[in-house]
From TrEMBL:
Belongs to the mitochondrion-specific ribosomal protein mL43 family. One of its GO terms (biological process) is mitochondrial translation. It is found in: Mitochondrion. This is Large ribosomal subunit protein mL43. It comes from the Eukaryota. It comes from Scapholeberis mucronata. Its main location: mitochondrion. Keywords: Mitochondrion, Ribonucleoprotein, Ribosomal protein. GO terms for cellular component: mitochondrial large ribosomal subunit. GO terms for molecular function: structural constituent of ribosome. Gene3D superfamilies: Glutaredoxin. Residues 37-110 form the Ribosomal protein/NADH dehydrogenase domain. The lineage of its organism: Eukaryota, Metazoa, Ecdysozoa, Arthropoda, Crustacea. Pfam families: L51_S25_CI-B8.
Amino acid sequence: MSNSHLFLKSGFIQTPLQNGLGRYIPQLQRVTLKFCKNKGGSRGMRDFIETDLMDFAKSNPGTVVYLKPKRHHAPVMVAEYLNGEREYLSCHQFSRDEIQKWLTYLCTRSGIPVMRFRKYQHTDYPTIQGVWNPFTHQAPEANTSEFPNAILSRPAHEAPTASEQLVEIFKRTKISDETKETEK
């Protein structure tokens, strides 16, 4: 077990103003790409700016992109979020694809700093069974099958519908009524 969590801030789960409840508001406010026009470590950043920056700007209209050429400096991405947080990412020797992936990552973040989550409850005897999730007792065949799948899509037990149950009750009462009439 690692103890790297000891150096992280701890806190409770926060959501940015119930984002996505009515509509989704991207939390990334602006991105500043700092790079050198000549230095070799900025080559991936320059390639990204030449080829993919316009596509990124069109797909993220709510994010402002600033370009700052800085002579003799390593490339850096600075992301500023709506909650006031800033995140710096050194892009020294990154390829164009790596810069695009990191930029996508920064766009999907909420801006809340990475932290160790705390719980509201505590127990002196933690479970040894592990944590439950919705996929705990699912069939392992679902991992490798192609969907839609006729076998996995049908219900686990074929329970009769409410209409079928009513028809069955009606048939039983009709038969019991007929047997009472024949006995008279």
